[in-house]
Amino acid sequence: MMKKYLLLAAMLTGTTGMSFAQQASYIDLLSAQNQWVDSVFHTLNRKHKVSQLFFVRAHTNKGKAYADSVAKVIKKEQPGGLVFFQGGPARQADLTNQYQKITKIPLLIAMDGEWGLGMRLDSTISYPYQMTLGAIQDDKLLNQMGREVAYDFKRIGAHMNFAPVVDVNNNPNNPVINYRSFGDDKYKVALRAIAYMQGMQQGGLLTTAKHFPGHGDTNVDSHYDLPLLNFSRTRLDTLEEYPFKQAIAAGISGVMIAHMSIPALDATKNLPSSLSRPIVTGILKDSLGFKGLVVSDAMEMKGVVKYFPDGEADLRAFMAGNDIIELSENSCRAIRKIKVAIRKGQITEAELDTKVKKVLAAKYFVGLQHYKPTDLQNINQDLNRTDAKNLVQQLSDAAVTLLQDNGLLQRMNFLQRTALVSIGTTTPTVYQQELANTYTNSTLYNLDKGASATEVNKLLSDLRGYSQIIVGVHDTRLRPGSKLDFNADVKNCIIQLAGNPNAAISVFANPYTLAGMPGIERSGALLACYQKEDSMQRAASKVMTRQLNPAGKLPVTVNSFFVNGAGVVYSSQAL
């Protein structure tokens, strides 16, 4: 039996194209007798059983004093795992090795890697955001991305990704999900999420669908306050929960619970869903039959501690049915509270034991029963391998979406005098530089997002001398918001350029920003490019130079002009 489930999880020593070892899924593993899990479990007293459910915050960019403070918590409390945030990959791998040395049971290392390690770590690859992935029509590419992300995680000694986001983003003004979602169509969200999840799990990684029962239609960020999801049970069951149901059916290993007040599911005033037993146990575990790891969202967030301070939130999260309590404000205090609750019979020892064995089984799944320190040699080179970078470009090429073309792309003359304009930037962009290689008789113009009316008018005056104009609209912020932070004069400049039938515009920004540029639908050609990254700029330049047939489809409805599924797809001969 042990040999059957010996999950060394493909020690990922190659690159893209490698064969990944087949292994039993984490969910299947839970129903099998496991000698290692049982042997470790029987060494634990009640305190250390509870400790296994707590995952502690860790960083590698906060200095030695902070790192040492985490080490003290590990030695004293023996938590089940760590959640790493900002830092660097080599530093994290080294620190993980040090932390693993001082723990009695190997730590499960988790991270938020929705778009890969680059979401948290410097010097690593960022794959496209999920909104961008939602435009891709080939799910095999998302599966491949999942495998690469699994390699990256395991290369630095990490085992669990708090991804994918399976929230249906049906609120364009959502301040916390938005571009992190695959889109606003529940069916497409489920398909994309499963493709990504399966790739990661095939690579030996634990995954976590979030944020149950669905955070996509909120206008409050639960990091700062408690959102209210005031929809009917029927609506929640058929829309918000749909991708979770599909992910569960597909064998996802974990589900993260959101901090939201949902009266239709639990009418207790100001009670976050993460602390609700009717939601966590009643719906997710019992009704939906989810057997995997139930993970709380961060317990330090204002959405949960605002109404349940001083460790009360941690206790309630445990009693609600969460298996992993993530980022407690004070794990030592929380462990004491939970021990008292068990002693008083508020929750049974048997339920605690079930949770602990699920965490230990997760450690077995990722190979921690045969723990080896992470090899620190060549980490940066391995994480920045050529095959992975090529995949980022493939994903970007597959996502770029042509929303409008009056025939301009076919008419563009590479030798004709051309203006290459980037708006929102002060220096030449990758987009302009790539285009200039083909449009050899071109002039580059840049217009800052805060440009004055005088600067805008001068640019518009200069452009009157060009019979073809290629424009890039660049949101240079770290995260692409639903509305551009350009001033009114600059936005008006974009609208005026859109009125020119010989102007092609590419928008390197959140697709929802299109709604804030009335008239842009009149552009001679219009590309939705989703985000600012160089790979998207290269993809757009390929379309503008007729090297790429755009195949992406809009994953959200922006307005009546730009609806979910919009996208002009040419025949292979058209360009």
Helices and strands, with pairings:
Layout: H1 26-30, H2 35-41, H3 46-51, E1 54-58, H4 63-77, E2 81-84, H5 89-101, E3 108-111, H6 130-133, H7 139-155, E4 160-161, H8 186-202, E5 206-207, E6 209-212, H9 233-240, H10 242-249, E7 254-257, H11 277-287, E8 293-296, H12 302-305, H13 312-320, E9 325-326, H14 331-343, H15 349-365, H16 379-383, H17 386-399, E10 401-405, H18 408-411, E11 418-423, H19 430-436, E12 442-447, H20 453-463, E13 468-474, H21 488-498, E14 503-508, E15 525-528, H22 534-544
Give a written overview of the molecule.
The protein is α/β, with parallel strands linked by helices and 575 residues long. The chain is 38% helix and 11% strand. It has 22 helices and 15 strands. The strands form 3 sheets. Strands 5-4-3-2-1-9 form a 6-stranded parallel β-sheet. Strand 7, helix 11 (277-287) and strand 8 form a beta-alpha-beta unit. Helix 20 packs parallel to helix 21. The longest helix is centred in the N-terminal third of the chain and has 17 residues, at 139-155. The radius of gyration is 25 Å and the shape is elongated. It starts with 25 loop residues before the first helix and ends in a 31-residue tail after the last helix.
